[in-house]
Amino acid sequence: MATSEFVPQPARYAIFVDAGYLYAASGALLLGCGSRREYRVAAEKLIEALTDHADGRLVGELLRLYWFDAAPKRQPTVDQRVIANLPLVKLRLGNLNAQGQQKGVDAQLRADLEALARHRAITDAVLLAGDEDMLPAVEAAQRYGVRVHLWGVEPTHGSNQAEWLVWESDTVEVLPADFLRPYFTKTKALPVPAVPPVDAAPAAGKPAVPSPSQVFAGRVPSVRPAPGAPA
């Protein structure tokens, strides 16, 4: 009687990054900034650092890194297009509404993580996130036997990750400020243009010649009549 041979699943992992959490937490920690407009991120080098860090922590090969971000009407920015072209990186975009809130990111993350777990494509998942909305994705992957390793950003105070998300993950690691600092730079403020000085009043009896600033401002000074000229 033939028996089926058990083939062990090869060790393989994927990395899931919630860019909204990573950027916001890192910007606050490193630069005291609350908006992405206030700093620049060397995303390509940051992604390389994250994959190298995972390689030193986990057994097996990297399947790919999933980068979850948002953009108005899901139209990628220049930086997001660069990320999308990186090898072994999959860009997933949610919608960024007028209030600056991400919509649809957690649903996309859960769909990808659950699909990989269900098809036995991975044995481990690294999740860099902090929102409690990611909890269903963790639970879904674990039901298929995938170990979930939660990564977070060093908080400015207290914790910047949901308590239940921390509890449900198999392992938890906090990335320190020194790890993230090389990839975040504060944007320089643009200089404010100087206001040109107001020209002095012309001497009596001389026609006033408008200055360039007055011409472009649409203000042409009146011309005084010369002495003895008819009114």
Automatic annotation (TrEMBL):
InterPro entries, A to Z: NYN
Region (Disordered): 200-231
Pfam families, per database record: NYN
Molecular function terms from GO: RNA nuclease activity
All copies of domain NYN, residue ranges: 12-157
Composition-biased stretches (Low complexity): 200-212
Gene3D superfamilies: 5'-nuclease
Name of protein: NYN domain-containing protein
Taxonomic path: Bacteria, Bacillati, Actinomycetota, Actinomycetes, Streptosporangiales
